[in-house]
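New to this. Please check both lines:
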Amino acid sequence: MSYEHKPVLLDEVIEALKLRADGVYIDATFGRGGHSREILKRLGPQGKLHAFDKDPDAIKSVSTDLVQDQRFEIFKGSFTMLTQHVKQHDLQGQIAGILFDFGVSSPQLDDAGRGFSFRFDAPLDMRMNPEEGLSVAEWLNKADEADIANVIYEYGEERASRRIAKAIINARIESPIETTIQLAELVRQAVPFKKSRHKVKEIHPATKTFQALRIFINRELEDIKDVLPQAVDALCPGGRLAAISFHSLEDRIVKRFIRDESSPTEYPAELPIMPDASNIKLKQIGKKFRASEKEVIENPRARSAVLRVAERC
């Protein structure tokens, strides 16, 4: 299946990375290569771009022109292998810029067989790497009711999490939950439709549940927390960190990390010690960047995208 991939916040990302022709850069979430291609256009013969993706379909999608570009290499695996990778290539502290585009990609959502969306009747999978770990269906059919409720509440911010978890437990007594439509219908029966903020359309009751299960099964938030310190250590002085998030849970982690790494260590007020600025590793660049109205019209999925940028001190 082919896709017309539209990378979000493309102009903002290119400006944020402050690209140098001879710099070494990392696209930690290759997807379908939209950001990578634009980065390569601005690199000279001495420039390098390393890319990661744990989705086998993303690796297979790399076009011949990229494979043949001597400045480009792609590695199959999670971006949490960042430190290991830069050490193996003797690049620790030499990376001029790192880009993260967190969350699920458009091709993953649009591929019915991957089970990410209840728009299609498909096996309930949702793994970004289908070759590793449990699928959502496998986990749902053996997890405790309390664990299911906690996941839906914590990762989906769904207030009706307990009601949904109970419906799942009751349903799986009769037959295993194996498809996207099956789960979506269970949630729909347990939770009424809600009007959207703009009252243009109704939000499907299963939206938050699907989000929660996807984030949980792929350890998305844990991986973000794991990789951000690695990225800082990999950057050279003046190197840029650019992170795109698509919902509040991701963005909150990035925002707090940049804030903490760009602030001096504070000591209790009763101690006669001044704040220690020697540990400051990052300088925040701007507050946050969002897609323009024009981009949102052309690519509605850019509506929720938030880009945060920081520079290595």
Q: What stands out?
A: The beta strands are 24-27, 48-53, 72-76, 95-101, 194-195, 202-203, 235-245, 282-290, 306-312.
